[in-house]
């Protein structure tokens, strides 16, 4: 990364010298010299360059530039590796979030998580003694905006580190943009397989990859004693890169357990009226419904339609939505939420000691109960913790070193559990859990053998 | 052949050409690059819609077609991740033109108001097809090879390509204005039936204009795809894109030459800047909408026409004052 | 796909379609009388939904009772918007300009709604009948859809009554037929326009309440709404009230049938493909006037 940067800037330097009539010479963001003399203070290279500019001869120029480049390489790398920051200067972290538009509800929850982490880390002395300040800009859930935002954050606001945006859709353009600057992008909400298809080295997702999210649930259901095991299942999902990969994984396991697929379909992500689709699912009258949903409105619409058709599946799991805490229960009412299942890697009552501390701080700041906290908050918080660990271990804010460290197979403990990245930046060390709403409590029910799991409410109570 | 206005044109274009060499921060070069892209798109759009009066709100069809063409070709022809990708851009434009043919055949049969809505409907057909068909990658979109240029140089080739597109679109638009073809388009705008009666081959003219306008828009889509590195159907087939293009043209001056350029430049820059600096998102919607309302109410024909009117009025007034003075002097000396 | 499914799809289509037809009627009325394409109609519907939502959440008012407040409010909003922005539009480009002006208005309203209510999706939930259904014809029909149908029918009925039984209605019909002639005959076309715009927006209050009770919504739901409404009025024939009714209901029925018979993935598209097909053969829409001059 650094090599291409320097060779690129050397080329640029050479071409600039030849082309411009009266240029100022730039190396990176720093003005090295202006034609006509060394006006730049304290820059020995500037004087040299000023002389170079005044003499004609392309070859001479190129040779001088090469020497200049080499010496500045040494100088700048020397400057880069040590924290050239005075102790106590704030460290800026740049983040682009969906504060408006399609993903705004999650974006705002993410913001809460990032801000909570910043507050906590500053309370304990900051990163290597530097207080953390978050530079958050909105991308209106638009990939073009994301690219522009990270460019601005890095080149204008000069942030030292970058955190990821919300959603797989936006993580990829974000990672590509920041990788041009050699920055790492640690994020918590871009887990679709398509994000990692680009094989970027600087991209790290602290949350569980999505494809396996429904595994514990499927395993549980397929291993129920024959007399209790349901016989039929319906699989319906939105055609979204986040949900679609999850369904076949669950379907395969459940099929092996003898659960017949009586209905399977994909619906467009922008559907607004789910009644006809829900109607078909209800008509199939399966005992289990596996719903691939991306957000609360989708699940809410299905739940409502099922209630109106008096269709009561014995088991109802949705891939996203019920994990959004109070946003979910206020949209569907607590009574309807009772018995709903959702896969996630975190929940408010998690026994993880780091999580408990975070939850306590969150409630102190925002009020409410642990069950009302959205999983997004924990995802964002884990991003912060991961970077903090990397900064501490590498002793500085050098992104290249951070990337190397995160790829070194180290395990970092976060509120969501263990974080360990594979070659592509995916984290498979986290356990997939299944959660259920029981009354107004959001509890862990799978894996059954996990000490923190409570008994699952099965069958689901009628609407 | 006014040399004064020609000079102004050349000067402004020169400014745009030199901009990234002076201001090197990638943020600004990418903002202006997008502005240039929209300037090209809007000028091209205006070349048909502005001159003929058929407001086509389906420009995103061409943009998206260009983007998907480039992405699919890059994938299937295994184009390496380098400047070679840029050769695909004209192909995107050509495919957009090919696609414009059936769209035009269907849409141009109806009159102006219905035309607006049918272009919207066709646009949604495109968008929904892109989302649901498998070869387009569905909602996961398509990825293009990741070009590993460093951030310093990355924006420059795109900037100059966008600049080239603006030049091409403007020259094309200016040329059309001066030909009989352009006159025929404008005749259609003024009174289609009379034009038909006067022997204008209305159907052929409309269709050709429509297809021609698709080229640059398709190319722009291709450039966008390479720049972003991946495309999603709901973003390259974006209804807001359609409306924005129309807005920019109207703001600047619907049917004029400079209008779309000005409108696109102002609006796109403002939109990017506002979203970045007023992160609350909704605030920029309000500012945008309010600003637009103000302009529409006080300058309903667009800024360019308004300014021209004011300048012409002032010149007329000055001239008449001078004439009056001369008369007085002449009268006085008698 | 069983017969019951099909019947249910048709019944669903009639019930939901009637609400869309109501909102589309407002839109087509505005166009017919004023030559204005009000692309802010979608946002006004959402505004109506939010008003009903706010009344139900903050004052506990039943959504239907709340209509007594929201409908007149939206009527006034319509009148204000018309006086402030729409009335200024004149000239040959009036219709094209109206698209932009109403779009700008929709942006502002959307921004305000986002700031006041945030972008979190909400739904009107506070009445018992919203989530229960009745068993009819061997299937469960949600009460809210039936009530919505009745409400839409009621509003449409009153609009028709107004049009055909009152003098004002006669003025409206005259303006619908030919504005210049109406003005020549002595009808105050400006006043008629303003009131029609108000009516067009007032019906969005009713449509919005039903929409808000059956869908989770936020300010950006307006985009999908307006694309459907525009498609409906064009299919029915711009300016034709009967057209809006027939087109609204039949399009939704068709969409539901496709979702049930084939796949939900393609049901959205049928909406627009249908429009393209019909317009290829009948450019003026189902009930539209065949125009000799520019439509």
General description of the model:
The complex is a heterotrimer of chains A (463), B (334) and C (295). Chain A is α/β, with parallel strands linked by helices. Helix content of chain A is 43%, strand content 17%. Chain A has helices spanning 2-19, 44-54, 58-81, 104-123, 143-155, 168-180, 193-196, 215-222, 246-256, 275-284, 296-308, 326-332, 334-337, 353-366, 375-394, 399-406; strands at residues 24-27, 30-34, 91-97, 132-138, 161-163, 185-187, 203-205, 232-238, 260-267, 288-292, 315-318, 341-344, 412-414, 417-419, 433-438, 441-446. In chain A, the strands form five sheets. A five-stranded parallel beta sheet of chain A has the order 4-3-5-6-7, with helices on both faces. A four-stranded parallel beta sheet of chain A has the order 9-8-10-11, sandwiched between helices. Chain A has a three-stranded antiparallel beta sheet with strand order 12-15-16. In chain A, β10, α11 and β11 (315-318) form a beta-alpha-beta unit. The radius of gyration of chain A is 26 Å and the shape is globular. Chain A starts with a helix and ends in a 17-residue tail after the last strand. By secondary structure, chain B is mostly helical. Chain B has two domains: 22-238, no CATH class; 304-334. Helix content of chain B is 79%, strand content 1%. Chain C has helices spanning 3-34, 41-58, 63-84, 94-117, 143-165, 167-177, 179-185, 189-214, 222-236, 241-261, 264-281; strands spanning 133-136, 139-142. Chain C has one domain. The mean pLDDT of chain C is 84. By secondary structure, chain C is mainly alpha-helical. Chains in contact: A-B, A-C, B-C. Chains B and C meet through α5, α11 and α13 of B and α4, α9 and α11 of C.
């Amino acid at each position: 990364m650094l090599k291409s940067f320097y060779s690129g800037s050397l080329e640029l330097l050479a071409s600039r010298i030849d082309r411009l009539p009266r240029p100022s010479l730039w190396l990176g963001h720093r003005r090295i010299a202006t034609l006509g003399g060394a006006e730049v203070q304290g820059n020995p290279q500037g004087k040299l360059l000023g002389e170079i500019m005044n003499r004609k001869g392309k070859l001479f120029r190129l040779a001088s530039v090469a020497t200049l480049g080499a010496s500045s390489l040494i100088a700048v790398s020397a400057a880069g590796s040590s924290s050239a920051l005075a102790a106590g200067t704030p460290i800026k972290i740049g983040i682009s979030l969906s504060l408006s538009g399609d993903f705004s509800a999650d974006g705002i929850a993410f913001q809460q998580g990032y801000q909570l982490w910043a507050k906590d880390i500053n309370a304990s002395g900051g990163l290597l003694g530097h207080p953390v300040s978050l530079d958050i800009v909105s991308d209106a859930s638009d990939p073009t905006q994301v690219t522009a935002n990270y460019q601005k954050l890095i080149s204008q606001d000069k942030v030292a580190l970058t955190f990821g945006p919300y959603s797989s859709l936006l993580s990829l353009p974000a990672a590509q943009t920041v990788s041009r600057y050699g920055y790492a992008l640690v994020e918590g909400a871009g887990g679709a397989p398509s994000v990692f298809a680009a094989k970027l080295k600087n991209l790290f997702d602290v949350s569980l990859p999505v494809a396996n999210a429904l595994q514990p649930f499927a395993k549980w259901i397929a291993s129920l004693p024959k007399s209790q095991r349901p016989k039929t299942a319906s699989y319906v999902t939105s055609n979204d890169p986040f949900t679609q990969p999850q369904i076949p994984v669950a379907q395969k396991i459940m099929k092996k357990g003898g659960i017949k697929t009586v209905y399977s379909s994909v619906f467009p992500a922008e559907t607004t009226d789910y009644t006809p689709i829900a109607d078909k699912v209800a008509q199939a009258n399966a005992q289990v419904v596996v719903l691939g949903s991306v957000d609360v409105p989708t699940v809410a619409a299905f739940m409502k339609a099922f209630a109106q058709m008096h269709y009561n599946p014995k088991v109802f799991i949705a891939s996203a939505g019920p994990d959004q805490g109070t946003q979910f229960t206020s949209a569907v009412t607590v009574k309807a939420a009772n018995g709903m299942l959702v896969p996630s890697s975190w929940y408010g009552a998690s026994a993880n000691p780091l999580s408990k501390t975070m939850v306590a701080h969150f409630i102190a700041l925002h009020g409410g109960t642990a069950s009302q906290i959205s999983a997004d908050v924990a995802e964002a918080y884990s991003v912060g913790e991961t970077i903090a660990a990397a900064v501490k271990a590498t002793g500085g804010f050098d992104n290249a070193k951070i990337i190397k460290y995160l790829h070194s197979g180290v395990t970092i403990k976060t509120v969501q559990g263990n974080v360990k990245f594979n070659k592509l930046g995916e984290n498979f060390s986290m356990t997939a859990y299944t959660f259920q709403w029981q009354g107004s409590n959001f509890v862990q029910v799978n894996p059954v053998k996990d000490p923190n799991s409570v008994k699952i409410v099965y069958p689901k109570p009628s609407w | 052949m006014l040399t004064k206005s020609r000079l102004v044109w050349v000067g402004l274009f020169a400014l745009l050409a030199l901009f990234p060499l002076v201001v090197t921060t990638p943020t600004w070069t990418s903002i202006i690059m997008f502005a240039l892209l929209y300037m090209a798109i809007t000028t091209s759009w205006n070349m048909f819609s502005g001159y003929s009066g058929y407001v086509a709100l389906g420009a995103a069809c061409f943009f998206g077609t260009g983007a998907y063409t480039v992405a699919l070709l890059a994938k299937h022809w295994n184009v390496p991740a380098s400047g070679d990708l840029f050769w695909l851009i004209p192909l995107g434009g050509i495919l957009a033109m090919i696609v414009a043919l059936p769209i035009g055949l269907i849409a141009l049969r109806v009159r102006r108001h219905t035309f607006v809505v049918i272009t919207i409907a066709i646009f949604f057909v495109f968008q929904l097809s892109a989302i649901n068909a498998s070869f387009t990658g569905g909602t996961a979109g398509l990825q293009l090879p990741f070009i590993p240029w460093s951030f310093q140089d990355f924006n420059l080739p795109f900037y100059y390509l966008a600049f080239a597109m603006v030049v091409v679109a403007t020259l094309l638009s200016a040329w059309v204005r001066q030909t009989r073809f352009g006159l025929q388009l404008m005749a259609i705008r003024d009174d289609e039936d009379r034009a038909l009666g006067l022997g204008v081959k209305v159907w052929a003219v409309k269709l050709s204009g429509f297809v021609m306008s698709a080229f640059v828009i398709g190319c722009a889509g291709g450039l966008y795809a390479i720049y972003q590195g991946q495309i999603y159907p709901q973003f390259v087939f974006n209804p807001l894109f359609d409306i924005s293009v129309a807005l920019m043209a109207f703001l600047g001056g619907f049917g004029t030459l400079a209008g779309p350029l000005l409108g696109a430049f102002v609006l796109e820059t403002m939109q990017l800047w506002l979203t970045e600096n007023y992160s609350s998102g909704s605030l920029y919607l309000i500012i945008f909408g309010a600003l637009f309302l103000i302009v529409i109410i006080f300058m309903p024909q667009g800024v360019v026409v308004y300014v021209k009117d004011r300048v012409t009025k002032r010149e007329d007034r000055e001239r008449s004052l001078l004439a009056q003075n001369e008369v007085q002097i002449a009268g006085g000396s008698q | 796909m069983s017969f019951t499914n099909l019947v249910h799809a048709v019944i669903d289509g009639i019930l939901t379609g009637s609400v869309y037809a109501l909102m589309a009627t407002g839109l087509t009325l505005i166009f017919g009388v004023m030559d204005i394409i009000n692309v802010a109609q979608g946002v006004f519907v959402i505004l109506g939904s939010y008003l009903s939502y706010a009344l139900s959440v903050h004052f506990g008012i039943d959504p239907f009772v709340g209509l007594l407040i929201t409908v007149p409010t939206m009527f006034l909003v319509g009148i204000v918007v018309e006086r402030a922005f729409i009335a200024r539009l004149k000239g040959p480009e009036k219709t094209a300009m109206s698209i932009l002006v109403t779009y700008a208005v929709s942006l502002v309203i959307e921004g305000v709604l986002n700031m006041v209510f945030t972008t979190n999706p909400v739904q009107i939930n506070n009445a018992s009948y919203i989530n229960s259904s009745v068993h009819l014809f061997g299937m469960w029909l949600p009460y809210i859809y039936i009530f919505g149908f009745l409400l839409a029918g009621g509003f449409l009925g009153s609009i028709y009554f107004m049009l055909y039984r009152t003098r004002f209605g006669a003025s409206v019909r005259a303006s619908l037929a030919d504005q210049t002639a109406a003005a020549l005959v002595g009808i105050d076309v400006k006043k008629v326009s303003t009131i029609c715009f108000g009516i067009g927006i007032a019906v969005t209050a009713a449509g919005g309440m039903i929409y808000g009770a059956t869908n989770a919504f936020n300010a950006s739901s307006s985009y999908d709404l307006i694309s459907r409404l525009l498609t409906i009025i064009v299919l029915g024939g711009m300016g034709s009230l009967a057209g809006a009714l027939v087109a609204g209901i039949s399009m939704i029925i068709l969409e539901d049938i496709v979702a049930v018979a084939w796949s939900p993935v393609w049901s959205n598209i049928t909406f627009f493909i249908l429009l393209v097909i019909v317009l290829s053969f009948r450019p003026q829409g189902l009930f539209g006037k065949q125009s000799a001059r520019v439509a």
